[in-house]
Amino acid sequence: MPALNSRCRVLLGVFALLAAATFASDAGAFTVRGKIVNGTTGRSMDAKVYAVNPSSGMDEEQVVQSQNGQFEIQNLDNNAPLYLLRVDYAGIPYNEPVQVDGQDKEVTVTVYETTASWDGVKITMPHLAAVRDGDHLVVEQMYDINNVGEPARAIAGKEGFFRIFLPADVDTVTQCFVTSLNIPIDRDPTPTGNPNEYYIDYPIRPGVTRIGLAYKVPYANGAFELSQSVYYDIGHLSVFAVDPAMQITSTSHALEAQPEVHGMASWSLHGLTKGSTLVLKFKGGHEHGPDVAGGGGEGGGDVSVIPGGSEPFSRYLMVILALVLATLAFVALRGAGDPLKNAKVLRAHYDLLITRLARLDDLHATGAISGDAHKAARENLVTKLGVIAMQLRTHGGKAKDATHKPEAASRAVKRTQAS
User: Fold this and answer.
1) Widest CA span of the chain, in angstroms?
2) Tell me: the pLDDT tens digits for 234-245?
3) Cα–Cα distances in angstroms (integers) from residue 5 to residues 1, 8, 14, 18, in the given order
4) Is the dihedral of CA 323, 327, 328, 329 positive or negative?
5) ω before 259 within 30° of 0 (cis)?
6) Cβ–Cβ under 8 Å, residues 148 and 120
7) Pairwise CA distance, residues 163 & 196, whole Å
């Protein structure tokens, strides 16, 4: 009997060790289960699913093949702040973000059939800004493209790619990007064969896509006339003079003066029609740009744009690009060794995102951006803040409330500049 008890104790010990080993191996992993749906037809479909880890340089850690539209990916790292599930369909990659919180996840990845038609697409220009830079004028534009066509399709192919206008006397295209999951992706404008008309080689998926463009034109005499062909119906356009000493007028449309936005002169116009021409005349402005340290508008305190590696545009980049700037800050985290383990870097980027969020709210309060654009941008900013807040907590840091007020945001900018 004692021998039997001894053997039982040994077996129990072995089972305990196996259970402990199993628990230890699973403690740092989680599983994603999901399905793939064709958003155009509403049917399930099969394809390869790639698990991509953005924090490790966009590595494809795993790939599985779905069966009857269902897939399961096991042993994903609980220490990663975020995963992307990528499915390629009809030559277009579709990415679904997965926030990591230690729990298994259920995810649906939606793909779409393609078209070259722009029926049912709504376009606005929340940002056309100008600033003088010595003997050049810098013109920056942003397009919000809301693909709400029915049935839902992705717009792709040479005939469907988005068209942009570039003046014949452009000296330099300083920036051209498309946002995917709010991450700016650089693109090169491609000539169409028509004068001044270029296209952006990137599919327009259902939902909102943002395209940004910045270029320089000669401005030695302090005057420039932009005569821009309009390739789409554009519901709304906001025009900004970064330096309020610059005058912007139009001989083709009625510009409605708006209240200053953080010291920038502002105008708006509605109802640009496809096939028309938008004529804007720029005159004056300080030769070396405005005093960007000066603030303006409501909200208390001066707010300054912070130049740096996370802002690859000119130092006069508009605060309307808050979402893009916030994302650039997040992407910058991946390029500095292992910054997710550096509490100081995380704190600085968290403060920057808070500032962008406050500025975004300020712009919405002045009517400079629509409610839909504000809501979408704010939700994405808060998501980014949540990711960084989780990392800060692992370092014992304390994150601020995402409803941070503009006055506090202004002070956060000054603290960042002083450090």
Assistant:
1) 105
2) 999 999 998 899
3) 6, 5, 14, 20
4) positive
5) no
6) yes
7) 10
